[in-house]
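Fold it.
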Amino acid sequence: MIVAVLFVLTAGLAAFAAYWVFMFTRLLPLERSLGAAREANDDLRLFTLELLDPDAAPVAASQSISDLGQRAVAALQRRFSGLSLCWLRRRDDGLGTIVAHRGRIWSELPAQALGFETAASLEAQRRGGWTRELTSPAPEEPLFDGLMRHGARRLRLAPWGGGSAAGMLLAADPEPSGQALAAAGPYFDIACRMAAAVGRLADELQQAGRAKERLQGGLSAAIDELNDTHSRLIAKSREVKTLHDVALTLVSRNSQVQSALSAIVSIVAKYLQADLVAFLLLDEATGELVSQPGAYGLEGEDLLYRISLKSENSSSVRAFATGQPFVTGDAQNDPQVNAHYARLWKIHSLMVIPLKLGDRCLGVMRVGSFRSEAFSPEQVDLMIVIAEEASVLVETAILNRRLSEVAEQLAGLSRIKDEFVSTVSHEFKTPLTTIIGFVTVMLDGDTGKLTAEQGRFLGIIKAAAKRLGGLVSDLLDISKLEGGGKMEMKPLELDRLVRASLETHLPQAHIAGKTVAYASGGRLPPLVGDDRWMTLVVDNLLSNALKFSREGGAVRVELAGKGDMLMVSVADDGIGIHAEDKERVFEKFYRARNRDEVAAPGTGLGLAIAKEVINKHGGKIWFDSEAGKGSKFYFVLPAQKEGALI
C-alpha cells in the first residue's frame, strides 16, 4: 500500500514538474515573442499616425511630400538613433534634393553621389529597394565610396513614388551586422508607400488643375462631354445588369432549359425595349428552325412558328447558315427579310443573332421592334455575347437528352442481359443436375463395373459439371442481387455461421495439406441479416483463401466485436494480389493475373457477390495484400440497434 502511495505521489510530482518545465521552456518564450510582436505592431501603428499628422499638412501637395519626409526622418531617428538617414526628392535634372537628413555624412557627399541615374539608384528603382554591405572601396560609385569614407558599413536604399513626384529614402549603418537596418525595414516600407500615395495625389491634383483650366476655357463643351459619358455609363450599366441577369438565370436554371430560355427572352425584351423576342432552335429530324416556348410577343398559332432551312429568303435561315448576325432598321421594305411576317407582326427593326458553339450553329435568336432603327451596334454586340451563353445552355440540354436516351437504351440492354442470364442459367441448372446425378450413379457402380480409365473420365466429367453448376449458381446469385433482390433480415448468429462454413471447407483443406484456424473474441453485439447470403459471403472468402494458398499453407479466420460493428477477417499466406489487380478485385468475372501459380479455378464472381451482399447489409468490405505474401480480406456489419424493429 505504501509503495502504491509513493508511486502515485512520484507520478504526480513528475507531472507537476513536466507542466512547469513546459511552461518555462515553451509557453513563456512564446508569450514573450507574442508580446514583442504586439509592441512592434503598436509602434508601427504609432509611426504611421506620426506621419499622418493632420496639423502639419499644408495645402500644396509638393510641400506635403517634403513635410512628410521631414516627419519620417525625425520619427525614424527617434527609433533608430544609430542610423544616418536622408530623404531625397528627384529634380528634373536627375539629381536629388535633400529634403531632410540626420547625420553630417549626407551634406558632405558630392552632388552626383545623390543622383537618380547612377547604377545603384537605377538598380534600387528596378528592384523596389535593396540593402547592401559596404566592404571595399568603389570609386566608380561615388555614393558607396563616400559612405565608406565616413564609416558606413551597410546601406539601405528604398525608392518611392514615380513621375513628377519621386524620391528615395537612404539609411547608412556603421554596424556591419545591419540589425538596425533590418529592424527599420517595416518603417521604411510604410514611409515610402505613404510618400508614393502623396506623390500620386500630387499628380492627380495637377491633372485636376489642368482639367479645371480646360473647364474654365470651355465649360459648355466639358458639360456636353460629361453628359455623353453619363449616358454611356448608364447604357453600360444596363448592359452589365443584363449580362448579370442572364448569367444568374443560366446558373439558377441550368437544368431547366425551357425555363431559362424564357427568362432570357424576358431579360432581352426589357433591356432592348423590344416587341418580339424568340429563340428558334434547329429540329434535326425535320430540318426546320422551330420557335421555343416562352417567346415574347408571340401568341396563339404564332408560337408554332417554323422555318424550313430551304427558305433562302428568310433572314433567320441566312444567319443560321452563315453564322453572321443580321440587323435591319426597316424590315418591311428590306429585300433580305421575308416581308410577309414583318408586316404580320408589325416589325420595323429586326435583329437575328446565330446561336453558335464552335463551328456549329444550334439556332437563332430573333429580336424585333415596332420602331425603326431601334438597335445600336453596341446592343448587337451584347446580344452576340448573350447568344453565346444561351448556346452553351442549349448544347447542354441536347447532350443531356442524348445521354438520357443512351442511358435508357443501356438500361434496356441491361434488363435484356439480366433476363437472358437468368433464363439461360435456369435452363442450364436442370440438365446439369441430371448429368451430375447419372455420373454419380455410374461412379458408384450401380450401372455396372467401370474400368479405371472409365472412372477417371467420369470423374473429370463430374468435376467439370460441378464447376459449371457453380458458375450457374453464381450467375443466378449476381442476377438476383443486381435485380434488386431483397434481403430477408432476421437475427443472425455470425459465430455459428462462420463455424458452419469452416466445417464445410475443412475436408478440402485437409486434402491439400492446409490448416484452418478460427478465433472469436470480445463481446459480439446482436446482428440481423440474411442467413443464406451471409453464408455465401463467408464461403466465398474462405474458399478463395484456400484456393490461393500453396500446398501446406495456413488460413486464419477471426470474428470480433468492434463497438457497434462486427468484423470478420479471412487471412491466408498464399500468392497475394499484384498492385495492378487491386482496383479490379471486386469486378465481375475478373481473375487475378497470378492465379495460374496455384491453378485456382473459379468464375471471378465470388468477390463481386460478396461486395453486393455486404453493401445491402449496410456494411463495408476491403482487403490488404502483397504479391507473394498472402492476402487478408475484411468485412464489417453494423450491429442491431437496441429496440430496432426487424
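The radius of gyration is 44 Å.
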